[in-house]
Amino acid sequence: MTGSFRRLCSEAGLLSVFASRAIRGVLRRPLELREIAHQVFEIGWRSLPLVMMSGLAIGVVLSMHTRATMERFGAEALIPTALAIALLSETGPLMTGLLVAGRVGAGLGAELGGMKITEQIDALESLAVDSFHYLAVTRVVACMIALPILTTVMNFSGLIGGYLAETVISDVSLRVYLGQAFQGIAFADYILPTVKTTVFGFIIGTVSSYLGYTATGGSEGVGRASTRSVVLSSMLLIVVNVVLVRIIQMWLRDRTL
Amino acid sequence: MSRSVQAIRFESVSKSFDGRNVLDDVSFDVPRGTACCVMGRSGTGKSVTLKLLMGLLKPESGRIYVNDRELAGLSSRELVATRKTMGFLFQYSALFDSLSVAENVAFPLRRHTRMTDGEIQASVRERLAEVGLENELDKMPLELSGGMRKRVGLARALALKPSVLLVDEPSSGLDPITTLEIDNLLMGLKAANQTTMVVVTHNVPSARRIGDKLVVLHEGHIVMQGKAEELDKSKHEVVRQFMESAEGG
After folding, report:
1. How far apart are CA B2 and CA A211, in angstroms?
2. Which of A38, A48, B93, B179 has a 20 to 30 Å separation from B72 between CA atoms?
């Protein structure tokens, strides 16, 4: 028990050091813009089909649940607004974070773990390249850029899904539906939860890079790094989300008062 | 400041992992333009020696000099500058598997030179021609055989025309003919460019061909260093076993 606790503390400490190094790396110039652009493509563009499909499905399901509830109170007209609030404030950002943690976290953990095991990271260093700046920092920055964009796509896909579900029951037009959806929503309701996903991106990028960087033990170690990347980044993301939601709520309340 | 004769100096270097001494008070030097082959059984710290030389690992004690500069005293900027004068051929080549053969060789040129795309392409062709792979530019590392990967790794290590070349097990996993080809390449390089080399190997015939000097490591210590003929005359059991084992194969 003491041994496990000590290992956990040691791992948390090392991860914190890695994270602070990543933050310093993000602020250091010059950034590896070419590699960042490549990673935004790999992480962002290649996640689009998953995010869009999930968004559509979530929109349909949320719309069905919302209708079932609203019908009881005769408030069917509020369905688009309720759906938009649910999507923009929480479902969209959190689901995007978890989906990217699954797809990208596993990929980054395995990719960097594989590079570590096959000495490609040492090869970068031997070619006089700062491997941390080139591999870890670029992936962290790319995750931080990609997450808000993917969240916006998820939100929009969710609304389209909700609209599609509505068209089965009513003949509302897309224009009217979207008009109703955005009726009770301020810009801050969209921007704050979306911007918070940059923190999710930082968590996913840092945790996955750290576990990939510290992978040991051949292909089994790479597999372990990949799995742990998904589990740890998802867990951290959910916990940190609680704090971020509280901060956003306080900020919004202060502004309204 | 005048340059010393030695390109590489290892002074009383010790390195341990998890409390196990891999290198213990190891000292040797390599004169400029010569090749030193470090031999020894698996796990005796040969590859660690190379990684210490490249600054990928730090010694617990002792000093390491490359081209008269002590690695421990270098700032990260200076270490980068020193590494640009060195090349490293890894045991399993360590090619970037997401890049093609040409992109692997071009990588250091793109990073560290102001060459135009055309100049880079010409230089890549030249380096690959030197290792006999000028027709494999667009292949991916996974499509290559072990020997071809080694040669691409060598071309990449030579891209910046280093004055010091570190080579880890150039013949491991290769057939005798390919081994001979790689050995000839390394000897040709040394003769043509006066490149200083440290070659880690447990292939004694290879070491005899390439090395001006051989160093035998055993359990973290150097048991003998000198020319192949001197090692042949040694009565030290480990050296004798090592040198005689090669005669059979």
Report:
1. 46
2. B93
